[in-house]
Amino acid sequence: MLRILLLVLTLFGTQAFAATQSNVLLRPIELDTGSGTLYGSLVLPKSDKPVPVVLLIAGSGPTDRDGNNPIGGRNDSLKKLAWRLAQNNIASVRFDKRGIAQSQPAAPDERQLSVDQYV
Hints:
Layout: H1 2-13, E1 24-32, E2 37-45, E3 53-56, H2 77-87, E4 91-95, H3 115-118
Parallel strand pairs: 3-4
Antiparallel strand pairs: 1-2, 2-4
């Protein structure tokens, strides 16, 4: 997975982009899971034609939808990747994991967790 991400970043990083952020649309999204709401972002290129969509999933630990982690720092890596993809006519969806950033209230109470809930 990391190799694919590095390949994508390398390919996009070596090209000159004429597109500006005005060619990109950002839409907040919400997913009601029944046990809480997960919040995310949909980044779209302005296009009259259908475009491919990728799902960007934050890494391990307390990493938010933008790729920021209180332990590893704030770098907006996933947010930047989403904008670059949109500038190349690829839409993307990112979300905050349960218990992280805006989706923090969706995390279950740890005192109530059991193996049966996850098996």
